[in-house]
Design a protein that fits this description.
Elements lengths: L10 E5 L3 H7 L4 H22 L3 E8 L7 H24 L3 E5 L7 H13 L7 E8 L1 H15 L6 H4 L13 E4 L18 E4 L9 H13 L10
Parallel strand pairs: 1-2, 1-5, 2-4, 3-4, 5-6
The structure holds 3-methylbut-3-enyl trihydrogen diphosphate (IPE) (2 copies) and magnesium ion (MG).
Length: about 230
């Protein structure tokens, strides 16, 4: 199936949604959905890498998600640490560079340590980039950029230079955004970077997301004509 791909997006961004509903449908606590969701992340990394995607970014935890019950937040944080610690050697083996974006302030020390180690261990990998948006907010990213600009003393700036102050300046803007679970909204994800991204929404809940679903999104992308405000002649 993968041979049928001819126009692979350089950057695929994913809003991984529906873990809680997946668990609820099975009469399980929400945390089971997050656990199962981690497996879907694995599958997605594998297929994206195989398809030749250069940047895969996933929304793992938003600044708004702190508003969830403490028990759920703690469980997500523990799962993230466990995930990073066990998966980093696999990423390294597959030449995948792990990076994080979001605010460090407010994240527990144990997770910051794992994040730093994971980034350091994979810093020389020059294959796919795997970006985890953690404690991330699109509005906060823009505000943080503005504050960096003010601090640097720059008094006037254009769009190209502004982008240099975002969390990962070398990250290209997403070509394709996938959101699972049927919700059709951006939920404060990459507000600047998504300006011209193709949007793909699927009813599939994140823990059920698999290779086939990822390829469906890529075929959707292949069928789109990106005009960037211009006309096709
Ligand atoms: C996405 O699934 C994971 C996070 C936001 C951390 P949800 O937990 O939002 O699942 P639903 O939307 O409640 O089903
Ligand atoms: C978006 O999902 C955030 C992540 C996937 C981490 P949410 O479930 O938090 O978003 P809303 O509440 O549906 O907008
Ligand atoms: Mg949700």
């Amino acid at each position: 199936m993968i041979d049928l791909l001819y126009k692979v997006p350089d950057h695929v961004a994913v809003i991984m949604d529906g873990n809680g509903r997946w668990a609820k449908r099975r009469g399980l606590p929400r945390v089971f959905g997050h656990k199962e969701g981690a497996k879907a992340v694995e599958r997605t990394i594998r297929i994206a890498n195989k398809a030749g995607v250069k940047w895969l970014s996933v929304f793992a935890f938003s600044t708004e998600n702190w508003g969830r019950p403490e028990e759920e937040v703690n469980a997500i944080m523990s799962l993230l640490v466990e995930y990073i610690n066990t998966k980093v050697p696999h990423l390294k083996r597959d030449n995948i560079r792990l990076r994080f974006m979001g605010r460090r302030d407010g994240l527990p020390e144990m997770i910051l340590k794992s994040m730093d180690e994971g980034e350091k261990m994979t810093q020389d990998c020059d294959g796919m980039n795997f970006v985890v948006a953690l404690n991330y907010s699109g509005k906060a990213e823009i505000v943080d950029a503005v504050n960096k600009i003010i601090k640097s003393g720059v008094s006037k700036i254009d769009e190209k230079d502004f982008a240099k102050y975002l969390y990962i300046p070398e990250m290209p803007e997403p070509d394709l955004l996938i959101r699972t679970s049927g919700e059709k909204r951006i939920s404060n994800f990459m507000l600047w970077e998504l300006a011209y991204t193709e949007l793909y929404f699927t009813e599939v809940l994140w823990p059920d997301f698999n290779e086939e679903e990822f390829l469906k999104a890529l075929y959707f992308y292949q069928s789109r004509e990106r005009r960037f405000g211009k006309v096709t002649v």
